[in-house]
Structure formats: C-alpha cells, structure tokens
Design a protein that fits this description.
465 residues, alpha/beta, L-fucose Isomerase, Chain A, domain 3
Length: 465
C-alpha cells in the first residue's frame, strides 16, 4: 500500500470554531484527492497540526511508516514556520507543498475578516514556503485549486515520482560479471549510489546463473516455448537455439525472484558456462519491468527499473536503449538505436520475430533474439552519469519515427528517432554534458517527470529539448 499523508497546518490562535472548520475542510480535500489518485496512492488525512510538538509527531510518523511514500502539506490558515523546523528536519519522505484554497471563488458580497482569517493560504503558504527554502529541503510545489484537472495532474505526477523513489530506496541489483573492460561512462561509484538512491548493487558470478540454467527441466522449457509460439513469429529451424534462451529466462526468473532483485547487468566478456549471450531472456525480463544494463552498466539497469516503476499505470514503453549509428542526410538526420540483442518488446510496433544470428563478438553460439521495428511518438532518452563528486541526469526530448527504408539484413530490434530541437544542437548538448551511449527511453514519461525525480533526489539535471 502506497500512502501520502495529507498534513494541514494552522495554529491555536484562531479558537475552536475556526479549527473545527479547518479540520472539516482539510478532510474534504483529502477525500477528493484520494478519489482522484486511488490508482497510485492512498491519501491519508492527518489531524491539523497547531504547534511544534504535533508537527514533530506527524513527521516522525510519516518517516517510520514503511507504507508512506511522501507527504502533502497545506496551510489552511497562517501557521508560524518556526514551529515546523524540528519536524521538517526529521522528515525523510518526499514533500509536496500544495498551494490551494478550500474555496475556488471569493464570496464578494459576504466576505469579512472571519472569512479572511480562515482562508489565508496565500498568507500561510508563503510562510511555509520560506522555511522550506531556508532549510534547503528539496520539495515540489503545486499551485491551483485542488479540483482543477491541471492541479490533480501535477499531484498525480508527484505521487508517481514519490512511489518510484520509495521503490528506489529498496532496489536490489545484480551484476553478472563486472563493467566492460576499459569503458568509462558505464562505470560508477556503487557505494555512493546506494547512499544517495538506496540501490544495493552486488556482484554475482555467472556460475550461479549457469547452475540454475542446468537445473531447468524439459517440461519447463516446453511450456516456455509454447508461450513464445503464441506471442511471436518463429521458424521451426531455430527451435534448439530458442530452447537455450528459454532456459536462461526460466533461470533468470528464479534467480531474480529468489533474491528480490529487480535490475541486473551482464557482459559478453564474462559468459563462462553459457552457450549464448542472453537475448530473448533479457528482452522479456525488461518487458515485465526488470531493469537491465548491458556491459555491466549498473546505473542504467537501476534507472530503467526506477523509471518503469514511475510509469506504472501509463500508456507507453520504457526500456534500455543504445545510440548506435546515424543517418546524416542533411536536414533529416536520424538516430538508429539498438543493441546487440537487448531491446524490450514493449517498443514493438509489429509482432516480434524470433531470429537466430551470429553475434560477432564473445565467441559463443548464435543467440536467439526478438527482432522488430519500433513504435512512433514523443519520448525521452535519459542517461545517468557519475561525474566523480556527483551524479548527473541528462534528459533529451526525442521523437520516435518509422524507419525510412527497410533494413532486411539488420538482425536486431531497433528504434529510430529525431533529436530535439535539431540534430546538431541536440547531439552537441548531449556530448558536452558527458552523456553516455546507454540510455533509458520512455514513451510513457516526460521530461517533467525526470526533472521532478532529479529535484527531489537532489541530482544534477540537464534537459535537452
């Protein structure tokens, strides 16, 4: 259960009648928000806080509640900010400052000072906003009447990002092998990423996966093969190679589930005991929300998993991707993105075809993989880099497009996209920012989602659009 605490601020100055009205109004707002956001999180109303002690209590309660993914604060009346300091210093959950009123319109004919004293969020929220800024607390602000669709949409975005942050804090990732030899941009400080994002990234010998693969039964393989035939086009001549991938997928399922792992990496330089580089097996893991990074790229694997969680409930695809090569026709430049094997079938515009082709590197048998052309539409490509003293999120807005011509000899799934605002500006900005060749592409998320995640996690953010 994901919960967002709804905390309303006031003070004892106003007396029982006013505070009773504050409580009733805030309950009604919480109830309305709960109806609108029920698919993402439960909005849990908290009694009005009037002093430092009550604020400390509710902030401690939110911090220790494992189901609480964040808090929404609102000042119905004026609420002196010094009494918020100790509580806010104890709060470890993401915070949304909602700047709204219970009334949408002013009662021009009847408005008096009693109404003004009760409905002074314009006053109280400025006091609260100051103390958040003074304390340096990273938070999101949503301003507008709470029943307006635009306001609800912004609160919904916060809820999804907060859910992804809570997920991130408990994320476990496995590295089968280490980072690809001599490669810089995919490497990083795993200790610092655990401190900052909660990612527990640990090494596992490929032999552990080999042992699980060897234990897979023929009955399990036959069941998986039947599933493939229902979902994909497949030639019977490729059956034996596909069976190998089916074993890998079954083994990966068991390994990940048994260890509570939601992201992983592998590398073609460490495949001892495997006949093929995992292809279909990895593609299908990504389709079920498991993060993946090739060549030991743990940052991309973890980020893929977090973004997939953020996108839950939205239409679209999210997955690992790599900038591979360009069409540099002047004025019509395109990026051709793919990988050796591992592109999520979430991106498939057509029914995927299972194909078997030599890999060309790694010295293993030709692996089976899903081949397809990608979907069209607006998307983001996101990269996380380790700059030595900080992590940096780079987000490019892109447009996925159809292939301009057939590619009958390209034996991998692929996407094609246009960079924004144009090719030269977009790629120059990416290179100057130190962006890597591995990204997470999403048609479900927007740059606003990534920007909010960056802000709430205090991560440097660069947007290219």
């Amino acid at each position: 259960m994901n919960r967002l605490y709804f905390i309303t601020g006031s003070q004892d100055l106003y007396g029982k009648e006013t505070l009773d009205q504050v409580a009733e109004d805030s309950k009604n707002i919480a109830l309305y928000l709960n109806q609108c956001l029920s698919d993402t999180a439960e909005i849990v109303w908290q009694p009005t806080v009037r002093n430092s002690e009550e604020i400390v209590d509710v902030c401690q309660k939110a911090t220790v509640d494992k189901d609480c993914i964040g808090v929404i604060t609102w000042m119905h009346t004026f609420s002196p900010a010094k009494m918020w300091i100790k509580g806010l210093q104890l709060l470890t959950k993401p915070l949304l400052h909602l700047h709204t009123q219970y009334n949408e319109k002013l009662p021009y004919d009847t408005i008096d000072m009693d109404f003004m004293n009760l409905n002074q969020s314009a006053h109280g929220d400025r006091e609260f906003g100051f103390i958040l800024s003074r304390l340096g607390i990273k938070h999101e602000v949503v301003a507008g009447y709470y029943k307006h669709k635009s306001t609800i949409s912004e609160i919904q975005r916060f809820a999804q990002v907060a859910k992804a942050m809570a997920f991130s804090k408990n994320l476990k990732a496995a590295m089968f092998g280490n980072n690809m030899r001599e490669v810089a941009v995919t490497d990083g400080d795993r200790v610092e990423s655990q401190i900052k994002y909660g990612w527990e990234v640990n090494y596992y010998g490929i032999g552990e996966l080999v042992a699980l693969t060897d234990a897979v039964t023929e009955a399990e393989v036959a069941k998986k093969l039947h599933e493939y035939k229902l979902l994909y086009n497949m030639s019977e001549k490729d059956t034996e190679s596909v069976k190998v991938q089916a074993r890998y997928e079954i083994a990966l399922d068991k390994f990940l589930d048994n260890n509570g792992i939601v992201a992983f990496t592998d590398t073609f330089q460490d495949l001892y005991g495997l006949k093929q580089l995992p292809g279909i097996a990895v593609q299908r893991q990504m389709a079920r929300g498991i993060g993946f990074g090739a060549e030991g790229d743990y940052k991309t694997a973890c980020l893929t998993s977090v973004m997939h969680k953020m996108a839950e409930g939205r239409k679209g695809a999210t997955g690992f991707m790599e900038d591979y090569t360009y069409d540099l026709t002047e004025g019509q430049e395109l990026v051709l993105a793919a990988h050796m094997l591992e592109v999520s079938p979430e991106f498939a515009a057509t029914k995927p075809q299972i194909e078997v082709h030599p890999l060309g590197i790694g010295g293993k048998e030709p692996p089976a993989r899903l081949v397809f052309e990608g979907v069209k539409g607006d998307a983001v490509a996101v990269c996380m880099t380790d700059m030595g003293d900080r992590f940096r999120l780079i987000c490019a807005e892109i447009e996925l497009v159809s292939q301009t011509k057939p590619m009958p000899k390209l034996p991998v799934a692929r996407l094609m996209w246009k960079l924004k605002p144009d090719f030269k500006s977009g790629v120059k900005a990416w290179l100057e920012a130190g962006g890597g060749h591995h990204t997470v592409v999403s048609t479900a998320l927007t740059s606003e989602d990534i920007a909010m995640f960056a802000k709430l996690t205090d991560t440097e953010f660069i947007l290219i659009r």
